[in-house]
Each structure stands twice: as structure tokens, then as C-alpha cells.
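Exercise 7.
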Amino acid sequence: MVDTITGNSMRPAIFFDLTHTLLEKVNGQYYLYSDALDTLKALRERGYRLGVISNLSEGVTIDEVHSFLEECSIASFIDPHLIVLSSEHPENIKKPDKRIFDRALEKSGLVKAENKAIFVTEEHEHILAARSYGWRAILKRNWGECRPEEGECVFSLTGLLSLL
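Solution. The predicted structure, written as C-alpha cells, is:
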């Protein structure tokens, strides 16, 4: 479905946090979780648009992040127009601030989240915030157990495929 005013696809958009969600940091180096590539590929094949919402230091650009995603071999799955960085905003707003989620909606062409905007992160505080803004938010547990009070939760990125 295409919005006739903006021309943007109205397909659902999944936004991932980067560190500890798609990438793990080991000895100062970032590595993709072993199931990241296959999961991103499967989600794209299912018609989801994929993006990133990330808190980064002031001055980091979208081009730099895109280059980093290329180094990690996932740039081909992430829509460059759906990269949302805290450093884009003059005040360097960070998750869980509503304005960064609003920016993601704006970039995706979605007027409201209404289950068409999905956020995946390991940060419980960010999950609660996204849900309060109307987003479907899925907690990615890197350790411990998913608890019923946490809502949608997965132990791996592959777990998203059974939820979405």
C-alpha cells in the first residue's frame, strides 16, 4: 500500500537497536549475533522495511552508520532512509525520548505506530517507552528468562520470525 500524498510504502517497519540487539561487543569489537543475517533476510522477504534507531555520540552521521552497517554485512537489509540517530537532532535526543520515535515514524511515512511500527531492543526501559507511544515493542533477552509481565519477548533474533 502506498500513501498517495507522500508516496511512501505503508508496509510495516521494524526498527532495531544496534548494540546488544543486532550486534554484540566483545573485547572492543562489534560482531553480529549469529542469527542476525538470516533473520534480517527472512524479515525483508516477508515484506518488512528494516531500520535502526540508535543513541550515538554527537556528530556521528547517517553515512558513517551506513558504512559501519556495510562492514557488518547488514547494510543491504537496512533501508538507509530508516536510520534514525540521536545525533541527527540538535539536542542529541536519545531513546527513550518520544521525539526519536516520532522521527522514526516520520522517516517511515507512518502517521501513527498502530502495530505498523515495531521496535526491537534489549533495553526494557526503551520497550516500555515505545509501547507507551503506541509502538509494538519486542524485548530481546540476551540472558535470563522472559517474564509474562514483559510482554512480547524473544531469546534470539530468530525468535522474531515466530512473532512476526
